[in-house]
Amino acid sequence: MSAAPKFKNNVKISERHGAGEWKLEKLALLALMPLGLWWVLSSGFTLAGADYGAVVAWFGSTLNAGLAAVTAVVFCLFASLAWKVIIEDYVPAGSRSGLILVSNLVFLVLAAASIFFIVRLALGSAPLPAGV
User: Fold this and answer.
1) Using one digit for the tens of pLDDT, what is the confidence trace for 18-73?
2) Helix/strand/coil (H/E/C) assignment for every residue in 34-75
3) 114, exposed or middle or buried, with CB in 10 Å at 0-12, 13-18, 19+?
């Protein structure tokens, strides 16, 4: 038999500690605002219509590559948390955990791929062959 739910001011207190995830989501969003603005202003205007050499030179800057990597990781974190909330709110209870796991894996792979390609560009590596 489980314990009776706890209430504070006639509101059920969550037993799953969702406030921590909520705070992390808001901090990620707070970090994304200046990072997103930097990304649009810096890369959007600098790299629009640029050739491969200009892109490699832009990513060759430690500041640009570092901020691009941080932006990619923070975006994937925020997107992962947002999709978790969407799944918890709109998907029936039986398939939630599997979908959350798949969602987390997708965003982990996206973050890792982003870091991989940012580092490749920052080091001036040749592009991958077509079809890879």
Assistant:
1) 678 889 999 999 999 999 999 999 988 888 988 888 988 999 999 999 999 999 99
2) HHHHHHHHHHHHHHCCCCHHHHHHHHHCHHHHHHHHHHHHHH
3) middle
Note the pTM of the prediction, 2 decimals: 0.80
Residue in the structure block whose two tokens are 């932006």: 71
pLDDT(110) > 70: yes
For residue 31, what are its two tokens?
């970090």
Q: How many residues does the chain have?
A: 132
Instruction: Give the tokens for residue 100.
Output: 């959350």
Q: Residue 11 in 3-state DSSP?
A: strand
Contact 78, 28 (CB under 8 A): yes
DSSP-derived 3-state class of residue 17: coil
How far out from the chain centre does Cα 53 lie? 27
User: Residue 11's pLDDT is what?
Assistant: 66
